[in-house]
Amino acid sequence: VETYSFEPVRLDDQEGVLVILDQTLLPNETKYLRLAVLEEVWEAIRRLRVRGAPAIGIAAAYGAYLALRNNPDWGLGDGSGWPREVETLFATAKNRLASARPTAVNLFWALDRMDSRLKALKAESVKGMEERGKTASLGLSLGLGAGWRKDILAALRDEANAIRNEDEAACRSIGEHGLSLLKKGWGLLTHCNAGALATARYGTALAPIYLGQERDYGFKVFADETRPLLQGARLTAWELSQAGIDVTLICDNMASIVMDEGKINAVLVGCDRVAANGDSANKIGTSGVAILAAHYGIPFYVHAPFSTIDFACVDGDDIQIEERAAEEVTEKWYSRRMAPLGVKVYNPAFDVTKANLITAIITEKGIAYPPFSLSLKALASS
Ligand code: MRU
Questions:
Q1: CA-CA-CA-CA torsion for 254, 260, 262, 268, nearest 10 degrees?
Q2: pLDDT for the residue numbered 309
Q3: CA 38 to CA 45: how far, in whole Å?
Q4: Cα(209)–Cα(179) distance, rounded to whole angstroms?
Q5: Separation of 75 CA from ligand 1 center, angstroms?
Q6: Separation of 191 CA from ligand 1 center, angstroms?
């Protein structure tokens, strides 16, 4: 599918920078930022310059790699088979990046993968050191400074690239599975942005729509504006119209009328964390759309790569919901403040759609149907 030309997250390893499309400037400006420093990557995730669950995982993985790559101060090996400073540097980067946003589990999942890769390399190196005496170690030219530095960086870069590439493949597969549930000419409603901008490529909820476009499905997509940060208006409407897909923007409170008018055959959304029982956290307002869909008898599909499924969360109550600044509600996007000074504001960025409102969860490994506590586990081990 070659329907859009942007790349939301990319590593430029020559320059040692993470290149991201600044999503806060869309749709008015297409500007790429080149981030070399840990704090810049943290800020980009926090401020939603890069956003969407898979994309922030990918950005964090590259961010952790760059934190080591761009730091010349690794000290020297002490003969134990491992340069100790590496662990401190990595842990600092990991903890900092993990603090950028709380809800999307992909952030922690990606950082844990990087951590495991580093630990595996250490175990291999220390073991090699013990086995060979104090001469050399398996795969690592220990004690020779530049040698192990190169090996460690190569491993971390490979892992971050794998996280990115696996996400692209997962999204493509989600697109195929998702499309199998849809019919030509259908009207589809989506909330927030679970598109190419939010992933390595294709998106999750928008992947079936891109594949359908390629195969002349003639979908009519309705995009919820998605207050307060307007991911639907600014991002989904932008990427779908760029791809020549029939997209109509509506305010969030118009979902009921388009459903009542018979314009919607299915709701497709992404998600930030799926609990073991299928409860799914996604952008604020998603659960309201699910309740409406149930009322009108419209199927409600959640699209999630396995990196978004968190079996450690028993149900939605275990998912931490991000709260964001009041000014996103009272001032942002307006030329003047649109709420009285001092008014109390509650601004949760996500809500949890209960499993009983979800028709199916579409993953790269296949489609899970209720009861999700069984079907998700079965897919995981398939
Ligand atoms: O706050 P955001 O814009 O990062 O929220 C994004 C969403 O809620 C998406 O629907 C979700 O991350 C899935 S992206 C494939």
A1: 50
A2: 98
A3: 11
A4: 7
A5: 39
A6: 9
